Amino acid sequence: MTCLKRCSKAVVAGLMMVALAVPALAAEVSTKYFTIDLPDGWTQPQPVQEANGAVMAIFQNTKDGSAVTLTIAPAPMSAKDVAEQTVANMKQGGLEASAPVEKDGIYETTFEQGPGKGVSYFGSNGKEFAVTTILGSTTETGKEFLKNLKPKDDKLFPKF
């Protein structure tokens, strides 16, 4: 199994864990890839997960239930390749996903399943790639939350 398939499965698994997680409050979350402040109404349901060099953080809005995941993995893959493979995996899993579109070096795809909407952003610096995903009845709450993101490498994350 390729690193991309493993990481894609990790992203999907992380999204599923959002629904099962028990919230724990925190004011700021910091990793080797980013720092983010948690404003009122946002929680970190579980600590940042790290395995095999990959980092995954999950955040949830307590008011509308929307969620944001940040997944970074060490792999010399382009953002385009990660986006295309992830979209193929989403479609295989039954999601309606748009073709990835590039803007400022970051690829974006939107997806839906039932009433849920989502958007994923894919970035790469040539050594690591990142997938930033927003889920909810609307993605606007997550985009507003991500304005608090302070990346340590701008090539990995979208700007809001």
TrEMBL record:
<keyword id="KW-0732">Signal</keyword>
<protein>
    <recommendedName>
        <fullName>PsbP C-terminal domain-containing protein</fullName>
    </recommendedName>
</protein>
<feature type="signal peptide">
    <location>
        <begin position="1"/>
        <end position="26"/>
    </location>
</feature>
